[in-house]
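During the reporting period the student researcher (J.K.) took over the structure-prediction task from the postdoctoral fellow and processed the backlog of single-chain submissions. One of the processed entries is reproduced below for the supervisory committee.
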Amino acid sequence: MTSPKDSLLNDTLRMSDVARLWSLDRHDSLECISARFFHHRYVPHTHDTYVIGIYVEGCQNLQLRGEGLYSKPGDICFVNPGDVHGGEPFGGHYGYRMFYPSIDLVKNIASDVFEKPVLEPPKFRERLVEDWYAFQLLLGAHSLFETDHQKLAADEAFCEALRYLLQLNSDAPGYSRTGAYEKKAIDDAVDYIDANFEKAIDLETLAGVAGLSRSYFIRSFKKMRGLAPHAFLTDRRIREARKLLKRPGTLVDIAAKCGFYDQSHLNREFKTRTGVSPGQFQLPNQGTFIQDRKLEYP
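J.K. obtained the following structure tokens:
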């Protein structure tokens, strides 16, 4: 039975402020923070970067550009460089996931998106926006950045989110789809994936191999290959895993040889594409009938 003292301690721990900050060099030292605040109050301050992020729980009283706003779960927040802002919990606590992209990073992605040089920093118009599609992209990218296991998937989600948000809520020039898709560039990227699928490949590397901007590369790749780069890379790894599962070997070793960060990752991706787990697939190829085996679930 929990004593009153232990119960009070547990309540105190549950109501403690928690924050984690990290950065990603490959995105111009992009800083990210994941936090839950019960007590912390931000005094008015500014950043020389953008602040773009999502609220996942609770409510923040956000003071931005002289206006008082109240967030709710599902909201997307935009703070332009130099904007004075502050905030504090309202009604208990709030939790959020934020990105701090540099001006150069946002300008470069805007130039990729609009296929013309963007010389001035784009300005985001609305402070809080509700958009479920963008929210899911940002949540996925932030979660993947936090572990950094799947660099390509994280980079795709992040760039797609900024592409979408720049069109939805910025004063950057209007989007214009111009120019032909570059078959040789995409073929070069596919050749690189074939030769390096067991490695951690990020979007910047693939776009560099293709000689295309990141956003244009994603659109071109999906148009020509039917899959986004990360999905294509995962599919390539699964094809290799199918070959290795027909030979003697442990699932842990096969996962590592194919570029999956652990066996559970292999199990999950393999079953979504084949309908069976790697263990089930391995057995009939070693002389055991699959119908004689109890189904396994990863």
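The committee noted the following: The first strand starts at residue 18 and ends at 24.
J.K. will present the remaining backlog at the next meeting.
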